[in-house]
Queue: 2 jobs
Job 1
Amino acid sequence: MIRDLRICFVGDSFVAGAGDETALGWVGRVTAAAWQRGVALTAYNLGVRRDTSADLRRRAEPEVLARLLGAGDAKAVVFGFGANDCTLEDDMPRVPPEASVENAVALLAWAAARWPVLMLGPPPLAHDAAHDARAAALSSRFAAVCEGMDIPFLDTHGPLSGIAAWRNGALRGDGVHPDGAGYAALAALVEQWPAWRNLTRP
Amino acid sequence: MIRDLRICFVGDSFVAGAGDETALGWVGRVTAAAWQRGVALTAYNLGVRRDTSADLRRRAEPEVLARLLGAGDAKAVVFGFGANDCTLEDDMPRVPPEASVENAVALLAWAAARWPVLMLGPPPLAHDAAHDARAAALSSRFAAVCEGMDIPFLDTHGPLSGIAAWRNGALRGDGVHPDGAGYAALAALVEQWPAWRNLTRP
């Protein structure tokens, strides 16, 4: 009997895989890779475009519970958000960094009390250098939060900033979201992440 | 500018693509095909394993609103459920057919008042002939409901019952859910469906 593992991926458009012409996104790619390793992974993709950490606090709890309650033994939650918090509206970020940290702590604490939890930081934003710098700074704050809570954190901003497939995909697409090649680069980072491999071991 | 279309797929494990080693399911396959036709389709997969029509009535509304409210002009909802309603527990279906019809009417009416709506009937259940017969009967009742509400309905039970890839995939897997080849057969039915092609035209 192969292992029945169910994971909710909670986050924004980058979790949803927006812009990916293959319809896989990074979540679909790492899910298919888990099947190849002999894990029957059910991936519930709860990424929503434009969602901030504040939006996630409103919907994550009922959506995750509807999928993981009473659903076998092996379950987990993977978070990925932050980019939309840093978007400016009327010269102010949609969610100020202090509130983003507070939201992250609340989301992570709720989930980690119930299941194994991992978190990905926001990826690079190729269309706007100032927005990108805010995302990098927020990623560092999230890394510190996760370290304090003993939750594995994957910095995607640093590595993807040096990968042409990510930036070029975004520039070919809507300017923000990469294409399938960009998501493949992000999926490769997740695949190499020991915390992910441990979570999805056969 | 290519067309920005966002669709919520609301349903059960067959909508979620459970058992598909490629992580695409039929939803991922028809989404990738839409991109190939020049439609930037954001697919929100809201399929949850074991969900009945009663479960969907509890969660569909907030989950769909969180994804479609204020999200551009082109939006739609596609439903697919019924198989779990017909599962016996203590010799009774989890949801009796009359309640399934009532739930379907409520879900369809709510969504159709806001967006274009399509519905797929439950697929064949290879593991249990009696369960399969109940699903076929429920599919016919859903077809009549949709006809009365002028909502396009796709019978998947009839066509897939004659397609070896569906049955063989289920028998190779957990007995209920097909593998990628089975989901590809279902995706091909959806791709040939005029209502789907009209919804996803470039």
Job 2
Amino acid sequence: MDAHTTDTADTPPAPSEQETPWLTAREQRMWRAHLEVAKLLDYQLGRELQPHNLAINDYEILVVLSEAPDHRMRMTDLATATLQSKSRLSHQITRMENAGLVLRQECPGDRRGLYAHLTEQGWETMQRVAPDHVRSVRAHFIDRFTPEQLDAMYTALAPIADHLRSLRGRS
Amino acid sequence: MDAHTTDTADTPPAPSEQETPWLTAREQRMWRAHLEVAKLLDYQLGRELQPHNLAINDYEILVVLSEAPDHRMRMTDLATATLQSKSRLSHQITRMENAGLVLRQECPGDRRGLYAHLTEQGWETMQRVAPDHVRSVRAHFIDRFTPEQLDAMYTALAPIADHLRSLRGRS
């Protein structure tokens, strides 16, 4: 990794070192704050969903399906919408099916196949849980920004989300 | 959830609705941008660690241990530092032990017990992988902010990280 030393006075650093643009202190503190908030917020919101017997990923599925036409989506589209692998989604839908929240349905005449469909119970669960969840999101995140910070964060993050989504689409 | 329509002029809304402060459109778009960036960035950084046979959580453990005195930490402290449960950490350390990156050690005379210790191979792996990882973090996140945005993000996020850390500490 290092080495590649040349023996004359104007020795350039090894290419790998030369090209490693380590984070500055200001970049580092922001990067760590972002990582911490992302991780701790996920944990805290999950904790506050526990009394409802829902994991945070379950809640996300309920939201996405409740916003879809006829409360159903192709499994492949649901995997894309929730940014997870098909195999991981499949395990999760099995758990949620056992809890009565969703149903897998084959669509006759559609070879692209399997749908996840929100059940009546899934819909009611979402309706019941949403107010508490929104209160959690406000208390631990949204209400802690000024209106200016909120807009500035969106302006900074939206193009990054676009960039990352386009990379993901390619994979 | 809806209904509760008021038929007379001064009927108050149902308590649940009254108290549910739904996100405004501006709050909602920022909240979704944050969630997307957090999730997609985690995915992309993990993908770019794959050629090194490391998961993103493995890399984090290597970083934390490499910054610790004597390259070792109590398992309980490591769980706190990486914000994960002791049982989940234990599974992860077992995998990393099998890969030769860390060692579990009992500390004689210390009843608080088990340490995770970075091996020479773990240290070399971290050194080798770090430049690539930093490049990924820059390309997909840090370099996409202006210096002003970087500082503004830190100013907004740091107190939220403090808040969430204090909640976590209480659990």
